[in-house]
Amino acid sequence: MQYPILYEHFNELIPLQKDAYLDLEERLLKKSLKKKEYLIEEGKTIKYLPFIKDGLLVNYRLDAKGNTHVIQIRYTGTWLGDLSSFFSSSPTHFNIQAFQNTELLLINHETFEYISKKHPIYEKYFRIGIQNAYNQTLNQVYNIHSKSAEKRYEELLKKIPSIIDDIPHYMIASYLGIQPQSLSRIRNQ
Amino acid sequence: MQYPILYEHFNELIPLQKDAYLDLEERLLKKSLKKKEYLIEEGKTIKYLPFIKDGLLVNYRLDAKGNTHVIQIRYTGTWLGDLSSFFSSSPTHFNIQAFQNTELLLINHETFEYISKKHPIYEKYFRIGIQNAYNQTLNQVYNIHSKSAEKRYEELLKKIPSIIDDIPHYMIASYLGIQPQSLSRIRNQ
DNA sequence: CGAAAATTTGACATGACTCAACTGGAGTGG
DNA sequence: CCACTCCAGTTGAGTCATGTCAAATTTTCG
Q1: Top-level CATH class of A4-119?
Q2: Residue B185: helix, strand or coil by DSSP?
């Protein structure tokens, strides 16, 4: 087994037979990103489901005025791509950028088709994984609506203390839905 | 076939064999809600996946101060429940209320287990359905971060012109993340 | 070291909130 | 069927959190 972190990740959701896992593992593609490099850029069609073997990815969208809006920040041991673009082969609206050197494992369409047909448990696995991501995002909407920027910042820091050193502050500000100046003032207390 | 709207709904995502559909249909439970009645209340554990056969549901959360925050508004032909509570048998944080008389079709655990084992295509169907809901919610986060309350209101009205007559304005305001007074002022132009 | 990028600070503007009062319509009971 | 009550919606005045614009400072990195 080459990637115990991925095997563990599956097993946390549902028990996975080792041979079913290995059947996937040997078909995974690898990709490395250097700091500041992009995994996904707006307008392209996404061909992979990316798992972060080690590193850090930030997902943002650009609005009509060219301002960036960070939607998601994900660390080692999670997935971050664009399911919609991958499954419908349509151009993505997202930009996903690494802010540390990052190692990825990729599933392409052929492999996805193969493993979900051969081992139907994978379809269930992806259902649960996406369901968890959906719940997180509903929670994100609730947080934006119910809490001040300051409180959201505090909670983020509590959840991910290292974040302040991991990515530029203007990206954290954007994730919180505020300007870098405002984050600076919040931090100044 | 008793509920062509549900059959259509499945078929829009992936082709579904009629016998597989009927196998589900005969196991569905029915539930009616009168205007203002609740489908889901905070603290309870959700036992069903609810499909809106006809009507309108609003999903909101209460914060520490007791203020309500509307997260989702869903009409006929869609699902709205709490997947997390249903699948993990944990108490929900959500309140889901009908604002018109509403007819629901319910899937319970037993039925979910039965149909997803008997017809594995359903697991794929739910994966895709949840994936679409997830994408909608990501889009919601992007909208909150990138657009003014006024613009979000305009876009909501454009997407669902009838909404202003369907539910109380204070619920629409909450969905937009603003106070009823602010919505009133926005509308006054 | 030096240029470019990121962060901070200051001054001022503004969108949305809060509190309070008022208006209008829906539903209820006599 | 009217009178009353209650709730939703509106309006006004003042406040506050965050934005905007501009400049200064600090950090990063070739």
Answers
A1: mainly beta
A2: helix
